[in-house]
Amino acid sequence: MATRRLGIVMYGVTGRMGLNQHLVRSIVAIRAQGGVLLSNGDRVMPDPILVGRNAEKVAALAKQYGIERSTTDLDAALKNPADEVFFDAATTQMRADLLTQAIEAGKHVYCEKPIADTYEKAIKVARFANEKGVKNGVVQDKLFLPGLRKIKLLRDSGFFGRMLSMRGEFGYWVFEGDWGQPAQRPSWNYRKADGGGIILDMLCHWRYVLDNLFGKVQAVSCLGATHIPSRVDENGKTYVADADDAAYATFQLEGGVIAHINSSWDVRVRRDDLVTFQVDGTHGSAVAGLTKCFSQHRVNTPRPTWNPDVPQTMNFYDQWEEVPDVGSENGFKIQWEDFIRHVVADTPWHHGLIEGVKGVQLAELGLQSWAERRWLDVPEIKL
Ligand SMILES: NC(=O)c1ccc[n+]([C@@H]2O[C@H](COP(=O)([O-])OP(=O)(O)OC[C@H]3O[C@@H](n4cnc5c(N)ncnc54)[C@H](O)[C@@H]3O)[C@@H](O)[C@H]2O)c1
């Protein structure tokens, strides 16, 4: 059984996502397990070169994680024919240009979402990748969450009957940074000019979650808000937080399913998890968090009575049954392995840049719906 090397130019690995999810929990983990196994028994060993603006930082990371190569020279890295893949997890605003540059250099490309900060740039780069015939992909990590994999299992088994609605609650309190608790997210998330805003951030995710699990998104109505107008940044400096930090969005899906998802960085959590999805169908309902999922079949549905004069006797949380585990491998790593197999062995792949275009499209329509205070249809995209 042979082991084949795959050179990967990795950009943005000093950031939160690039470092934790992509470098450490995916590429370093894949290297530690001896590479990615192919169906013929061969293995593919990723050989990354870490690229960043700060030479010491990327060199230190490389050293820490047993990686041989790092550089500040992206142009030179892209010129090296021995590195076939370019990956980007740096800032959203530079993404489309970086991907374009990599595609021009003949690289296969894989990246974080959103694939661009505007629909126009997103479709342009996806078309370019298609024209050039390079393999391409975007991170769709939420599909790999055990909680949502359990929802898919229930759906595929026919558990829900006819699906009626899905309500999603995403969010937690992100500290303002002004009274002792530092903020837990980068400050650019809260500045429009730096590509921030929860609508651009989260509607990209909700697009593929809805399309894949509940029904293709046909229309959107979105109300955004900037609840906290001023925050304190990484250097202790107060800044104007002008980007939307909450979004209250309703979606009409194919098949008549209605979905409503609240996304907020200004909400305190009293629910099963930081994100929860409740699905109600004629035959059963389920609530999934990041990992767990609880179901209630029609025959197990209790009969509550509305009586405001008597304190509630039912514990509603006790009336659900837990769906057994489906495995808990990190989703970012699973997707990396799939992409590597797709590049090397041409295996099927469902997360091309076109999926990223759909995400940016929905985010842009969400922003437009908010600005114009109206429902908007979601047009089909042709590459
Ligand atoms: N899939 C997910 O669940 C998920 C979650 C969070 C963020 N993201 C996406 O990941 C990307 C990075 O987000 P993050 O939270 O890791 O941000 P971050 O601020 O922690 O990291 C940003 C990275 O970009 C680099 N960078 C910033 N400005 C740059 C510039 N001008 N030139 C070159 N490099 C620059 C930084 O050095 C750093 O490596 C964003 O596109 C974001 O939307 C995805």
Structure description:
The chain has 9 helices and 18 strands. The chain has 383 residues and is α/β, with parallel strands linked by helices. The longest helix is centred in the C-terminal third of the chain and has 20 residues, at 353-372. The chain has 2 domains: 3-141 and 331-351, NAD(P)-binding Rossmann-like Domain (Rossmann fold), CATH 3.40.50; 142-327 and 361-372, Dihydrodipicolinate Reductase, domain 2 (2-Layer Sandwich), CATH 3.30.360.10. The protein is 32% helix and 25% strand. Nicotinamide-adenine-dinucleotide binds at residues 12, 14-18, 53, 89-92, 94, 112-114, 139, 141, 186, 188, 201.
Provide a brief overview of the structure.
With 383 residues, the chain is α/β, with parallel strands linked by helices. 32% of the residues lie in helices and 25% in strands.
Radius of gyration: 22 Å
Structural class: alpha/beta
Total count of strands: 18
Helical run tally: 9
Secondary-structure element order, as H and E? EHEEHEHEHEHEHEHEEEEEEEEEHHE
Shape category: globular
How many domain units? 2
For the record, give the distance between the C-alpha atoms at the N and C termini, rounded to a whole number: 39 Å
- As residue ranges, the low-confidence spans are none
What composes the largest sheet? 9 strands, mixed
Quote the CATH topology of the largest domain. Answer: Dihydrodipicolinate Reductase, domain 2
